[in-house]
Amino acid sequence: MWPPGKIMANYRTDTKGETVKVTLARSPIGFDRKQATVVKGLGLRRIRQTVELKDTPAIRGMIHKVRHLATVAE
Known about the structure:
24% of the residues lie in helices and 20% in strands. By secondary structure, it is α+β, with helices and mostly antiparallel strands.
C-alpha cells in the first residue's frame, strides 16, 4: 500500500452507496470528440462493455451527455 498506512479506494468500484451499470451500445466514432472523451472518462473502451460506477451527480451528468451511445441499468 502506498502511502504507508493509508487505504485508497477506487471511486469507480467503491461499493458503499448506490451504483449504476453503464454499457456502451454505440461507437463514439462520428460524433463530437468531447463525447468520446466522456465515454473514455466513464471507463468504457469497447462496445457492449459494462462498467459499474458510483451513482453521483457528476457521473449522471456524464451519462446524460452520451445517452445516445450508452445504456444504463440501475
